[in-house]
Amino acid sequence: MIFLQLFYEFFKTGLFAVGGGLATLPFLEDISQRTGWFTSAQLADMLAISESTPGPIGVNMATYVGFETAGILGALCASAGLVMPSVMLIILVSKVLEKFRTNTYVEAAFYGLRPASVAMVASAGIGVAMTTLFNLTASGFGVLRWRELVLAAVIVVLTNFVPKVKKFHPIVFIALAAAVGIIFEF
Amino acid sequence: MKELWMLLITFAKVGVMTFGGGMAMLPILQREVVENRGWATEAELADYFAIGQCTPGIIAVNTATFIGQKRRGLLGAIFATIGMVLPSLVIIMALAGIIGQISHIAAVKHAFAGIRVCVCVLIFNAVVKLWRSAVKDGKALLIFAAVLALSLLTDITPVVPVLAAALAGILIKVAGGAKK
Questions:
Q1: How distant is the alpha carbon of residue A45 from its chain centre?
Q2: Number of Cβ within a 10 Å radius of residue B123
Q3: What is the domain extent for residue B167?
Q4: What's the gap in Å between the CA of B71 and the closest CA on chain A?
Q5: Whole-number percent of chain A with pLDDT over 70
C-alpha cells in the first residue's frame, strides 16, 4: 500500500529530523536507498528545486517525492506524514512551553542532537558530492570530474568570500550553475 | 470561523514568501504575525522559533502550529499548518509535472548536472554554518565524528544515531553535571 508507506516514511522523517531545513536530507537518503522511489541524483535535483521555490524545504521535498512516486494523493500523504509529528508535539509542548525549554534533560539531549544532526547532513552531502564531483567507476585521475570540481570551487569562493555576492540568494548561484552546465555541456 | 480562515490565509502568505525555508522565514513572520495581525509579540515569536528548533520537524510548521494553537486551539493549529503547507504543495506539484515532461531534453540535463554541483556547495555551506553553533567542545566533536562514521560506513537508519546522540547528550550533561 504505497500511500500508507509514503505516510509512514515521512512521518518517521518528521519525527526524527531535528533542527529544520537540511536535517531531513539524511532521512531522504535513507528512504532512497531502501525503497528505490528516487535516486541520489534525483534527490540533488529535488534539493535544488526546493531551494529555488517558496516554502519550507522539508515540505517541498515530501511533496515532490510523494508526487513522483504516487501522484497527487501520494504528495498529500507524504506531506501529511511529515507535518503530523510536528503538529502533535507542538500541541503537547505549547502547554508546558517554558518548562520544556529550560528542562535540564531537554537541554542535555540537544547538546548531543546538534552535532549528530550536522554529522548526518554532512554524510548525506558527501554522498551527493561523491556522485556529482567524482566518477567512481573510472581509475586514476579519471576519478576526478575536473569541470565539476572547478565550478564547485568557484561557487565556494563566491558564496563564502566575495563581499556582497555571498549575501545573494541561493537561487542566483543555482541559476549560474545551470547556465554553466548548459554552456559547457556537463 | 473568520479567524480560522485568517490563520490559513496569513500562513499561506508566509509560505509563498519564504524562499529556502528555516531562518529565511523569520523576518516575514515578524511582519505578518507580529506587526500586521498582532497575534504574538516579538519575544513570543523568538520563543516559538527556539522551540521550533529544538523539537523535531520542520521549523516553519512548528511555528505555524504554535501560533494557530495559541489563537484558536486545536482547529487553529490545523488551519495554520494547512496554510503553511498549501503553497508548497501546489507549486511543487505544478513544477514536478513540467519537469517530468522536459527532463529528457539535452539542455535540461546539462542544466541539472550543473545545478547538482551548486547543491553540493550549498550543503557544504550549511554544514559549516551548523557546525559553528553545534560543535563547541571536545565531547560534541566526538559525537559528531561517531555519527559521521556511522552514517558513512553503514546503511543504518538515521533514527538510531538520533536516539543515541540524545542519550549521549543526557549522559554527558546530566550525569557529568551531577559530579560537580
A1: 10
A2: 22
A3: 135-180
A4: 12
A5: 97
